[in-house]
Design goal:
Blueprint lengths: L2 E11 L7 E10 L2 E7 L8 E4 L4 E4 L1 E3 L11 H8 L9 H10 L2 H17 L2 E7 L6 H12 L4 E7 L8 H16 L5 E6 L6 H13 L3 E6 L7 H7 L4 E4 L5 H10 L2 E4 L1 H7 L6 H6 L4 E3 L13 H10 L5 H15 L16 E4 L6 H4 L6 E6 L2 E2 L2
Parallel strand pairs: 1-4, 1-5, 6-7, 7-8, 8-9, 9-10, 10-11, 11-12, 12-13
Antiparallel strand pairs: 1-2, 2-3, 5-14, 14-15, 15-16
Helix pairs in contact: 3-4, 4-5, 5-6, 7-8, 11-12
This protein binds zinc ion (ZN).
The site of zinc ion has 5 residues, from loops.
Length: 382
């Protein structure tokens, strides 16, 4: 097994219990794992040596919420929204029509391009949802495309009721033949619990059916107004409740007590000019918080976790350290993946070498490509 010493690290964020952030550090990669972390003044021998010249090194970003598999473009809708039209859940149907019309090879090329864009910007772990097919065949092929890009693929058949369908019949389809078809390809299930999408009972039916097939549970919860999504996530033992923009004190307590991760997606609020999630209230109450891009063509067309970190600091009131933690360890918790999101010994060697002396630059220099190098599973990929 080849070992590589990364040395002369100006600042290493490992999230190690004793020394979560270490100055003048070094790290050894063996195969695809972190084998040693310590001071750059006394380093073990390794086959290869990379001097990063004082740069900061952080764990690869974990983007726990994306919708990367889709056809079409909604820049016109975006422009109209900026001219004053409000966002409504029904806009999803535009993408559904475009996705269904796109042959699988093109669908794959587009999703692969977006996943590559995410990787270049430092995202080494990516979750991808379906949800723009909404037929058995189109949901299955969306998840099959996702399966070529990540092990974290979430079945979101309950994204919106497709045009011409009755909600109750559609939920029968999602929990019956559609789930049957995708259960072997998906790793998790999700439902959009929102007025204009699915109500509490419909979401519970969908999510419990998925859980019974061994799928992990995520919920699109409390995005556009207060609602039952967060409580539903807590009662079902979901991994995450995503969005959490409009939460009551009871919702906050439920998140804290259940350990459900609140996945905040400030780029969606940025793109839709909506109120931001109350991150401070959640953090101060002791809720586990992640941040993610929610990359999708309607409300958040970005793959950049650096941008999300900057927004989390500027708009969610998070400190740069909290924002980076949420973008790495927080995302890993939302996906229940223990060996990513940190750089402790034994972690997967997924890391980003920044073109900066400190991780704070991620928020301090918004909009700038600060990624000098990306290492995934021990391999330099950028
Ligand atoms: Zn979403």
């Amino acid at each position: 097994m080849t070992s590589t010493l990364l040395t002369n690290i100006g600042q290493l964020v490992s999230w190690d219990d004793e020394q979560p952030i270490r100055e003048k550090a070094a790290l050894v990669i063996e195969g695809d794992r972190v084998a040693w972390v310590g001071s750059s003044s006394v380093t073990p021998l390794a086959d290869e040596r990379i001097d990063v010249d004082g740069a900061a090194v952080v764990p690869g970003f974990v983007d726990s919420h994306t919708h990367l598999v889709f056809g079409g473009d909604r820049s016109e809708e975006f422009e109209a929204r900026l001219a004053g039209q409000p966002y409504a859940a029904g806009g999803i149907r535009t993408t559904v029509a475009a996705t269904r019309a796109l042959p699988t090879p093109q669908l794959r090329v587009r999703a692969t391009r977006l996943a590559a864009e995410a990787l270049r910007s430092g995202t080494t772990t990516l979750e991808i949802k379906s949800g723009y097919g909404l037929t058995v065949e189109d949901e299955l092929r969306s998840l099959e495309v996702a399966s070529t890009l990540t092990p974290h693929r979430t079945f979101l058949g309950a994204h919106v009721v497709p045009e011409g369908s009755d909600a109750s019949n559609y939920v029968d389809l999602v929990t019956g033949p559609m789930l049957e078809a995708v259960a072997g390809v998906a790793s998790a299930i999700d439902a959009f619990c929102e007025e204009g999408a699915f109500d509490e009972d419909q979401c519970r039916r969908v999510l419990t059916a998925g859980a019974a097939r061994g799928l992990a549970v995520h919920v699109h919860a409390n995005q556009l107004r207060p609602g039952p999504g967060v409580q539903l996530a807590a009662s079902l033992g979901a991994l995450s409740a995503d969005h959490c923009t409009h939460v009551t004190d009871e919702d906050v307590t439920a998140l804290r007590d259940s350990g459900v991760v609140a996945v905040l997606v400030p780029a969606a609020e940025f793109s839709t000019r909506s109120a931001y999630a109350p991150a401070r209230r959640l953090l101060d109450a002791g809720v586990s918080v992640a941040v993610a891009t929610d990359c999708n063509p309607g409300t958040s067309f970005t793959t950049s976790m650096g941008f999300v970190i900057a927004l989390a600091c500027r708009e969610l009131g998070m400190t740069p350290r909290e924002a980076l933690h949420a973008a790495t360890a927080g995302g890993a918790s939302a996906l229940a993946q223990r060996d990513v999101g940190h750089l402790r010994v034994g972690a997967r060697a997924d890391l980003v070498v920044l073109d900066a002396p400190s991780y704070v630059h991620l928020a301090y220099r918004p909009g700038v490509d600060l990624v000098r190098s990306v290492i995934r599973r021990g391999e330099v990929v950028r």
